[in-house]
């Protein structure tokens, strides 16, 4: 449970840093339009902070979740996918703010990696529900 609280706190720090970076980077570059940087902060808060706080509450009320063998696999896959996804948002957003023209190959690469991270995130969330179902629902 302490691991989940620490993870949530790590994402809180990342969310706050992302928010400050977005505000200061766009201000420094006199950018006032929409950019992918604007949603990094929100994604870290929801997918990181709130998700792991909810998971902590699940574990607090149903400690048998910790006995599930696949919990660590879920934890690793979920964190990799969230970090990979937000890195791609940062890359795309930074390029938008700087006005850097992207070749079609680079643009497709960024989109492809973001797509893979979305797939991994989906797989990890489905796996999370499998863990909940096997640990809690079947426990009753």
TrEMBL record:
Q: Which Pfam families match?
A: DUF2871 (PF11070)
Source organism superkingdom: Bacteria
> TM segments?
39-59, 71-90, 110-132
Q: Which InterPro entries match?
A: Cyt_c_oxase-like_su1_sf, DUF2871
Q: Which keywords has UniProt assigned to this entry?
A: Membrane, Transmembrane, Transmembrane helix
Keyword Transmembrane helix in annotation: yes
Name this polypeptide is given: DUF2871 domain-containing protein
UniProt organism field: Allocoprobacillus halotolerans
Highest lineage ranks of the organism? Bacteria, Bacillati, Bacillota, Erysipelotrichia, Erysipelotrichales
């Amino acid at each position: 449970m302490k691991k989940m609280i620490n993870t949530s706190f790590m994402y809180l720090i990342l969310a706050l840093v992302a928010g400050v970076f977005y505000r200061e980077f766009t201000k420094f570059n006199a950018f006032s339009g929409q950019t992918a940087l604007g949603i990094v902060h929100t994604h870290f808060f929801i997918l990181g902070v709130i998700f792991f706080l909810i998971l902590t509450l699940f574990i607090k009320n149903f400690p048998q979740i910790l006995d599930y063998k696949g919990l660590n696999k879920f934890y690793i896959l979920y964190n990799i996918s969230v970090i990979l996804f937000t890195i791609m948002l940062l890359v795309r957003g930074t390029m938008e703010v700087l006005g850097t023209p992207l070749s079609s190959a680079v643009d497709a690469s960024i989109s492809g990696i973001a797509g893979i991270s979305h797939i991994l995130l989906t797989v990890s969330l489905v796996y999370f529900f499998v863990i909940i179902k096997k640990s809690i629902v079947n426990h009753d």
